[in-house]
Amino acid sequence: MAEETLSNLLQEDRTFPPADEFAAAANGTQELYDQAADSDAFWADQARKYLTWDTDFGEVLDWSEAPVAKWFIGGRLNAAVNCVDRHVEAGNGDRVALHFIGEPGDTRDITYAELHDQVQRAANVLVELGVQTGDRVAIYLPMIPEAVVAMLACARLGAPHSVVFGGFSADALRSRIADGEAKVVVTADGGYRRGKPSALKPAVDDAISGETTIEHVLVIRRTGSEVDWTEGRDHWWHEALEAAEPTHEAESFDSEHPLFILYTSGTTGKPKGILHTTGGYLTQCAYTSHVVHDVHPETDVYWCTADIGWVTGHSYIVYGPMALGATQVMYEGTPDTPHKGRWWEIIADKKVSVFYTAPTAIRACMKWGEEFPNAHDLSSLRLLGSVGEPINPEAWMWYRRVIGGDRTPIVDTWWQTETGAIMASPLPGVTAARPGSTQLAIPGVELDVVDETGKSVPDGSGGYLVIRKPWPAMLRGIWGDLERYKETYWARFPGLYFAGDGAKKDTDGNLWVLGRVDDVMNVSGHRLSTTEIESALVSHPKVAEAAVVGATDAMTGQAVVAFVILRSEAVSEADEKGEGAELVAELRNHVAKEIGPIAKPRQILVVAELPKTRSGKIMRRLLRDVAEKREVGDVTTLADSSVMDLIKTGLDPAG
Ligand code: 6R9
């Protein structure tokens, strides 16, 4: 399959050299690649160029405790001051930081001066609630400005935030709170989703019922819906901020002070708390916002459509653009509420010039049709970006033609929660783009594709994507589990960071990322682990065993397909009452409740057996063949080779 995709991709020879006008004004330059030859000196320059340090650093990189890096040794700074205060001090307090647009149509423009006020007050409130430097604060919010305020208030205090995507369930929130031992959770009564208020507070109440580390809950009023209230524990955000001291003196923290934890799916069921620290992370976020997104803070209106609950929201809504003092759009809702032209209407209205979104969204818009974007004036756009999964050349071409008016460069940016910031991308104004290729490592980063033995493969062939040298925004570990960090990323190829992605280099040395090679799925740009969903299914009383695979899906990249073996009581019950369809619906909802709606399987197939090796490992490769309606591959290592026939004949032909 990967081979097939690849031969298509490698025939892709359309190139799009930068327009002269764009190149003349671009932040990125060819010289950056040359300057990066001495990478320590290069990163030291970027750190001093983009950030304000209260104490300058000495040594650039300390790799003596590899694979845990330390960057910008001895340097001290405050991330929130870098993202807010210094812009106000420089006289840009009146500049809009956020053009907020709520799903129901309410709008709010928040300047850097207003943000400064809010962040200071919120920091004071957290202190009053007992939050000290180093304490963790969970944030469980919709896409509203207070999410940014809460994150920056934590950063200001040196209290690492742990943002949990608002679409996750109470159970997911509970396990993340427990793993990070968060002391306070910031939430809202709810948010607007597809035209209706969608409650959040009940999930928090549920997640912290029983034994918990949470002492206080700060609640933002967004929808005005009724909420249950626990006196002494729950506090209204607006009341607390109003009563708080308006100023807060920020402290500087060590460059390696933890900035946040963000949970992401791994190959086992337990999500990994990815740890990021301050100086290196912020440097690479600001640098890439500047040279890859080409943000010109005085003139651009930038919009990244990601949710704050994913790393893209952390790095390219909060830390990168705000370190530069950019003006951006923040939108609460979905792209098709109340109509399928909503995004394009916002771009025309706010004159958005730089737009960053995901291939899954682009493919959905392609399906809805060109008439929606065509109905709006998109001429303000000058640069488009893509992130989250491979973008197929057809979607790339559509994006450029329909959204970019055949004029804008596209940056296809490869990176991960773990890398913290963009690692590979064309540099707009410098590189000639290839539809579907993430192209080259950015200046300062060294990527490679290696074979099974860790040897670099020649141009024109494929293998595993690795990173050869430490980079400033790299993760500093997995929260509370250093061994798992070493094991997951550094054990496969000693001395190299293994990203978990398969990739190819074309004959010109361009990079084509092909997707995950481990048991992690990528559904609409969201990482989900097969094991996590299997565990959720097996937690249902009617399920005996489950195997989950990611099947190629034209719309979402991959889709979750589950194979379940029912407990015998459930089988006879379903047969007798002819309630198979109801049971499948019940199981899909169960997964949504356990993990969140994005993890809902597209399809659940009830089977009598699962294909297993003699050592008992489920052969997901074979199930993927079934899910993708292909000829089933080699079954010789199965303990019982007739199992696949049983599965195929047992399946309802409508599947
Ligand atoms: C930023 C983000 C990381 C995984 C990564 C890869 C896939 C991201 C991509 C891409 C091809 C791109 N991925 N960007 N694949 N081309 N431009 O998405 O972080 O949620 O941790 O996912 O996403 O498979 O390994 P995260």
UniProtKB/TrEMBL annotation:
Its cofactor is Mg(2+). Acetylated. Deacetylation by the SIR2-homolog deacetylase activates the enzyme. SUPFAM superfamilies: Acetyl-CoA synthetase-like (SSF56801). The modification N6-acetyllysine is found at K617. Residues 30-83 form the Acetyl-coenzyme A synthetase N-terminal domain. Keywords: Acetylation, ATP-binding, Ligase, Magnesium, Metal-binding, Nucleotide-binding. Coiled coil: none annotated. Its EC number is 6.2.1.1. ATP binds at G388, E389, P390, D412, T413, W414, W415, Q416, T417, D501, R516, R527. CoA binds at R193, R194, G195, K196, T312, S524. The keyword Acetylation applies. Mg(2+) binds at V538, H540, V543. It catalyses: acetate + ATP + CoA = acetyl-CoA + AMP + diphosphate. Belongs to the ATP-dependent AMP-binding enzyme family. Catalyzes the conversion of acetate into acetyl-CoA (AcCoA), an essential intermediate at the junction of anabolic and catabolic pathways. AcsA undergoes a two-step reaction. In the first half reaction, AcsA combines acetate with ATP to form acetyl-adenylate (AcAMP) intermediate. In the second half reaction, it can then transfer the acetyl group from AcAMP to the sulfhydryl group of CoA, forming the product AcCoA. This is Acetyl-coenzyme A synthetase. It comes from Ornithinimicrobium cryptoxanthini.
